[in-house]
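Give me the fold.
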Amino acid sequence: MNNYKILLVEDDAEISKMLKNYLTTENYDVVCAIDGQEACNIFDDIPVHLVLLDLMIPKISGMDVMQHIRKNSVVPIIIISAKDTESDKTLGLGLGADDYITKPFSVAEVLARIKATLRRTIQYDNTAIVTSAILTTGDLIMNLSDYTLTKKGKTVDLTAKEFEILKLLLQNPKKVYTKEQIYSLVWNDAYLGDENAVNVHISRLRNKIEDDSRNPRYVLTVWGIGYKLGENL
């Protein structure tokens, strides 16, 4: 067993059964919820390593479930939804999702996305060997041994991708990264020209770490190129 527990939130019984059976054969421990209220109750009661979340579910919407989770947790969330418009994807990512899969999908794709997301979230991998390291800039202190970020001594809750983006910039303070480079390195996937994912996560990261997100000091835009870490902080 790999000891990873996944919360699957899906009201379609056939899809839920198919995914649970497939993921169970891959040695994941899958707990299912058929509506938003049940999902919130399970999440509050049982520690999970990743959430697979449908948006169109009864009682409480998927978006509201995600907001409930994000109030107290940065556990990875992968949305699985038939809602495939750009605005839906942007809203989902903006509220804290780490990835977005549109229906119909292949179970192999879901498994690949889960593995990629969990690889990036090494604080949940009990077998990973993490080298203790502290990265600092201005009022920010990033601890790579326990994946925490503090600003002026107060904890800043980041999602896995937000953390990885900031870590990338902190580890290479003089380098300017294009959106393509950020996507390839953080998402560990081929860049297909979709700037929205990077833009949304940069915006969300700024809202959490900047004193004024409209005049950022930490994550600077290099117009026409990409992003870099601010200097003289």
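DSSP finds eight helices and twelve strands in the chain.
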